[in-house]
Amino acid sequence: MQKKTCLKEIQIKYDKNIPPEFIQQLYISVGWQQRECCEIKRSLEGSFLVASAWIGERLIGLARATGDGVFSVTIWDFSILPTYQKQGIGKLLLNSMLTKLNDYDIPLITLYSELDKKNFYSKLGFECGSKKIIGMYKYNK
Q1: Nearest-CA neighbor of 5 among 51, 75, 62, 58?
Q2: Per the CB 3.0–4.6 Å rule, which of 2, 88, 95, 135 could disulfide with 83?
Q3: pLDDT at residue 3, as a whole number
Q4: How far apart are CA 141 and CA 131, in angstroms?
Q5: Helix, strand or coil for residue 24?
Q6: What confidence score (pLDDT) does residue 43 get?
Q7: Cα distances (Å, whole numbers) of residue 74 to 6, 34, 37, 94, 135
Q8: Most distant CA pair in the chain: distance in Å?
Q9: Pairwise CA distance, residues 83 & 1, whole Å
Q10: How far apart are CA 10 and CA 35, in angstroms?
């Protein structure tokens, strides 16, 4: 069991220059499929904003936003190392990202979530099942 982390230990960075291997380890730790490091690097480069949470030199959380940066952005790949979950780090990281995005006056911020995480995002102001907007997706084979 991980010792409870003091939020003062967490450093939030806005930098796309993160070693892809660090991100790959984070993704695998939360149960996501392994992604190629070159693809991770391309996804960072193509992002409007990347926010990451660190303790020293250890990456413990990540979120990235894509979009036009004017009318809308979508938050992707929001993840926290499992041993650091449920300690307020995810809330800190996402609130930091939302504050940074608010600096751009972007009117619409969207994200996709697993159903069991819906309440977490609702507490941060995200709505589900709005009559104005529905989430849709298409996977290309």
Answers
A1: 58
A2: 2
A3: 62
A4: 30
A5: helix
A6: 97
A7: 29, 22, 22, 12, 11
A8: 44
A9: 7
A10: 26
SS3 40: helix
Nearest-5° Cα angle at 109, 42 to 105: 100
Find, among 55, 44, 48, the residue nearest to 69 by Cα.
48
Given a contact cutoff of 8 angstroms between Cβ atoms, the answer to whether 98 and 124 are in contact is yes
The ranges of the chain with pLDDT < 70 are: 1-3, 129-133
Q: What is the pLDDT of residue 79?
A: 96
pLDDT at residue 86 in the model: 93
Matching residue, tokens 């930098």: 15
pLDDT of residue 62: 98
Q: Which pair of structure tokens corresponds to residue 12?
A: 């939030």
- In the numeric block, the tokens 């997706």 are attached to 137
Q: Could you say which DSSP state residue 123 is in?
A: T
The confidence score (pLDDT) of residue 39 equals: 97
Which amino acid is located at 103 in the chain? D
Q: Kindly report whether the global pTM for this prediction surpasses the value 0.70.
A: yes
How far apart (Å, rounded) are the C-alpha atoms in residues 48 and 108? 14
Q: Which CATH number fits domain 9-112: 3.30.450.40, 3.40.630.30, 2.40.50.180, 3.90.79.10?
A: 3.40.630.30
131/117 Cα distance (integer angstroms): 21
